[in-house]
Amino acid sequence: xxxxxxxGEDRRWSAAGLLDSVLPGxxxxxxxxxxxGISQDKHAAPAIVNPxxxxxxxxxxxxxxxxxxHLCPDVQVIMVFKGTLEVxxxxxxxxxxxxxxxxxxxxxxxNSWRSYRALDGDMECILTTQGDQRKRIYWDxxxxxxxxxxxxxxxxxxxxxxxxxxxxxxxxxxxxxxxxP
Length: 181
Hints:
This protein is mainly beta. It has helices spanning 141-149, 168-178; strands spanning 29-34, 54-61, 66-72, 76-89, 96-100, 105-108, 112-130, 138-139, 152-154, 160-162.
């Protein structure tokens, strides 16, 4: 049974798990636990690789840092364990926010734009995302442009990489993954 348990000390945090993590004021860290969730770090691997209908990963943010606007096609449940999380839905100009203190649970509908921000201190939460498959998230165009300016993009497999390391064909393939179907 120990192989199917992940303690707080077992978490393997990735500072490169999200495309926007290199941007000023962002910096979300991901620790995959069950299944291949939304992490975009090709080196991150969950401790439990065989999910049963969902993936689980930890997300942490430093105070007043955020995960920029993105869309996840799958239902996602957020459980806040430490700190306070602000979740903002919708595109710019149509935003609606909710403040979730510790011990809050939020169900985020599929195909909705959202961003996460830590308020009043560091924040840790669990992201549980529907489905056995590796998840894909789509970033707001502003985030994509800022990431490219910071020499970051997605490779043809959907993982974060340095733009200047990819040949043109791989850059084009990565851009196709960035666009909503």
